[in-house]
Each structure stands twice: as C-alpha cells, then as structure tokens.
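Researcher: I'd like a structural prediction for the single chain below. Treat it as a standalone chain; there are no partners to consider.
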Amino acid sequence: MFAGATLALLVCVALALLRASLGPTVFDRLQAANTIGTCAMLLLALIGFLNGRPEFLDLAITYGLLNVIGVIAVLKFFHQGDLGAGEEPR
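Model: Treating it as a single chain, here is the predicted structure.
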C-alpha cells in the first residue's frame, strides 16, 4: 500500500514537472511548483512514517509552510511588481 502511495506521488511530481515545463503562463508554472512542493512534503512525511522517524513530520510541516509563503511572495511580486511593504510614506 505504501509503495503504491509513493509511486502515485512520484507520478504526480512527474506530471507537475511536465506542466511546469509546458505551462504557457507564469501562473501555470507557479501552480506546478506548488504541486511539486506539496507532493514533496507528502513524500517526506511518508518516508518518515515508513522509517519510524517522527521528526520527518516536523520537517514536512516546515517545508509545507515555506512552500505556502513562497507562493504568496511570488504572487505578490507579480501583482505589485516588488516585495516591499506596499505604499510608500508621504
């Protein structure tokens, strides 16, 4: 069962890599990168569970949070053109 889950996640990563390379827009590529990050997080948690190392779950959660923060930063950059605080003081 776990081998099947691992194989399914690796297929998901391969399809997301294909989408990232063929994506016509930046947002398609960003979604593919987010999918790759999510699959990597799930793979990390699965490997930790299989090897009996619960600290891998902490690493997977940290990686997932960094993935979300990175996607938000890239979206803000493409929406506003910079990563500054927003409006400049007058």
